[in-house]
Design brief:
Bound molecules: fe (ii) ion
Structural class: mainly alpha
CATH architecture: Orthogonal Bundle
CATH class: Mainly Alpha
Helix content: 55-70%
Strand content: under 5%
Order of helices and strands: HHHHHHHH
Oligomer: single chain
């Protein structure tokens, strides 16, 4: 996981996460911290291991998990959809960490798709991220259940 660890130490990744943490200090809904990225990476990889015949390399799935929301601060500041902003910001980071151009294409497309409906004919990584993004949340104990557009009883179920 050398390249993923290099990513986490990259000054731009650290800078984006600091911006997000600062902007989400008062947020009542799910935050988009390091922990969220790690949870999404783990759940997405577990899902792929159990359901896919062709498994993407672990580093590819984890890089996508950690990067899928790095553009959240852009959305807060400009209104641009964070899936697009995250994909754009992820590209130079992945290049700096020596991911191949094929892997970068897969990761960036997965990030771009992570807010779409999982049944919407997504790439395998996009589908795994879209599902993991919901399944990685602790909705059962959330104090903002009644205010959250995502919340319903199914969100309390453990899936992965
Ligand atoms: Fe997101
Ligand atoms: Fe997310």
């Amino acid at each position: 996981m050398a390249r993923v660890n290099q990513l986490l130490d990259h000054e731009d990744y650290i800078c984006y996460m600091e911006k997000i943490n600062g902007l989400e200090k008062e947020r009542r809904f799910c935050k988009h911290s390091f922990e969220h990225g790690l949870s999404v990476a783990r759940v997405a990889y577990a899902y792929m291991l159990e359901t896919r015949e062709v498994i993407l390399p672990k580093e590819v799935v984890y890089a996508a998990g950690f990067l899928h929301d790095i553009g959240r601060w852009v959305e807060y500041q400009t209104g641009e959809d964070h899936a697009e902003a995250s994909a754009r910001l992820a590209l130079p980071l992945l290049e700096a960490c020596r991911f191949s151009s094929e892997d970068i294409q897969v990761i960036v497309q997965g990030i771009r798709e992570h807010r779409r409906h999982p049944g919407d004919n997504l790439t395998p990584l996009g589908e795994a991220l879209a599902l993991a993004d919901d399944w990685a949340r602790d909705c059962r104990h959330c104090s903002a259940q009644t205010l959250c557009y995502k919340f319903d009883d199914a969100m309390k179920q453990i899936m992965y």
